[in-house]
Amino acid sequence: MTIQNFENNRAFTHGEAVKVHFFRRNGELILAEDTYFHLMSSMRRMRMEIPMNYTLEYFTFMLNSLGNTAQNGIHQLMVFPIMENGKKVITHHEHFLAIKDICDIQKTVVLDIQKEITVNTHFLSNIRTYSPENCYAQVYAVENDLDDVILLNPNKKIARTIHGNLLLLKGEELRVVKPSEGAYLSPLMESFITHLHKKKLATITEAEIAPFETQQAEEILLISDELGIMSVNKIRAKSFENNRFTDLLEDWKQSFGNDKV
């Protein structure tokens, strides 16, 4: 890309972009409609003009035509404006990450709480757009040998991590952070907790969650639309198992079967 191209790319010059993630499982897209509506909502929040051809059918055909050989993975779709003849024109870029089954735990991770900066709680905090907080936290994680970092909001409650949202399991209660606290909106997480609620496999509570509550949880899951599902192995001095979450994820996985989009 030339310097002139960079100057016309408002994702590069202004951070004016949104990202969503489509999920491929056993060669087929799943939750595509949920992701599509999440994309439309994210673009509206960023005051982007939605092109007429941006339909669910358009993105489904595009993603299925890319020829990815991997049967399982995540399509990261970034939508952003470029300047052409003084006007904004919406375009997009796709990147594919091959992973294991999206419904499986991809790996275990070690986290800690980062208190030097906070995440806002307004409506732009719920979508994936440019985030200097993430840039800072990623460097902090590397410097401290962490896989991810827990970010707090101005009220010192948990907002999210760099990559996703935390789910805390204790007894039969599954506690998730309310979107109003700065958590990401996540089609993947919404599908999981909706399944658990419908089958009465856990009592779902959307709440304000204080950092110390992580030390009281029995198991903690990190759900990330961009990287998949991760089991939290350790936060500070507390270590966690993932036996019950493994069973819950297996039950959720069976609900997809071999259905296509």
From TrEMBL:
Transmembrane segments: none
InterPro entries: Aminotrans_IV (IPR001544), Aminotransferase-like (IPR036038), BCAT-like_C (IPR043132)
Stored SUPFAM superfamilies: D-aminoacid aminotransferase-like PLP-dependent enzymes
Pfam families per the UniProt record, alphabetical: Aminotran_4 (PF01063)
GO terms for MF: catalytic activity
Protein's name according to its UniProt entry: Aminodeoxychorismate lyase
Organism: Bergeyella zoohelcum ATCC 43767
